[in-house]
């Protein structure tokens, strides 16, 4: 009888221990987004089941870039949820949502490549991304208006094409030159005026 109780306690202990550990193996990439310069990007992962919050020790790799999750998701209630990896400027865009994890700019190439989650758990060999600042590459290879979701359930849609373009160096030089010429003309007129 005692042997049976010990065996039963061992089995129950193993079941409880294994169910308390967070999984990670059901997450799959669903969408990639980038503007033309790669300064605004996001990768979205989706999970169909609960108990998959254990991302903390895994990575996302694209080309020579590696992202380490470091922390798990805040809840094991992961059924039909997303994890959003985005550049730090993404949440500040109109329609942007707060990323769950921050990736650097140009994390994945816009011309196509490979992105991997947790070694071989999910590997996506993707083609060229739409870089119009509005559409995102879907897992099936089609493109559609971007629709980022984060783990908190927020969703949005951005237009990264409306970012203020930076003036080329020659534009700045011309602008400064015009201001200096206009300023010197005003000074000449003031100096020629009788007191």
Question: What this model shows, in words?
Answer:
- With 195 residues, the protein is an alpha+beta fold.
- The protein has helices at 2-20, 169-192; strands spanning 28-34, 41-47, 59-62, 65-68, 81-86, 101-102, 113-117, 122-126, 135-138, 143-145.
- A six-stranded mixed sheet has the order 6-5-2-1-9-10, with no helix packed on it. A four-stranded antiparallel sheet has the order 4-3-7-8, with no helix packed on it.
- The longest helix is centred in the last third of the chain and has 24 residues, at 169-192.
Shape: elongated
Order of helices and strands: HEEEEEEEEEEH
> What kind of sheet is the major sheet?
6 strands, mixed
Percent helix? 10-25%
Mean pLDDT: 84
Distance from first to last alpha carbon: 116 Å
Beta-strand proportion: 15-25%
Oligomeric status of the shown chains? single chain
**Low-confidence spans: pLDDT under 50, at least 5 residues?**
5-20
Estimated radius of gyration: 26 Å
Number of strands: 10
Strand-pairing-aware structural class: alpha+beta
Strand order across the largest sheet: 6-5-2-1-9-10
Q: What is the overall number of helices?
A: 2
């Amino acid at each position: 009888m005692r042997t049976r109780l010990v065996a039963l306690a061992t089995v129950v202990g193993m079941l409880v221990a294994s169910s308390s550990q967070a999984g990670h193996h059901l997450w799959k990439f669903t969408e990639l987004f980038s503007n033309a310069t790669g300064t605004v990007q996001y990768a979205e992962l989706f999970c169909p089941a609960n108990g998959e919050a254990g991302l903390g020790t895994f990575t996302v790799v694209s080309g020579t870039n590696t992202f380490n999750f470091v922390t798990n998701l805040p809840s094991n209630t992961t059924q039909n949820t997303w994890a959003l990896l985005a550049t730090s400027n993404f949440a500040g865009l109109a329609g942007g949502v707060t990323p769950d994890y921050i990736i650097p700019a140009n994390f994945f190439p816009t011309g196509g490549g490979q992105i991997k989650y947790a070694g071989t758990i999910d590997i996506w060999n993707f083609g060229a991304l739409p870089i119009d600042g509005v559409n995102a590459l879907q897992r099936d290879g089609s493109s559609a208006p971007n629709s980022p979701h984060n783990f908190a359930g927020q969703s949005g849609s951005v237009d990264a094409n409306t970012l203020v373009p930076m003036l080329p160096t020659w534009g700045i030089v011309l602008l400064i030159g015009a201001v200096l010429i206009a300023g010197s003309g005003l000074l000449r007129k003031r100096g020629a005026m009788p007191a």
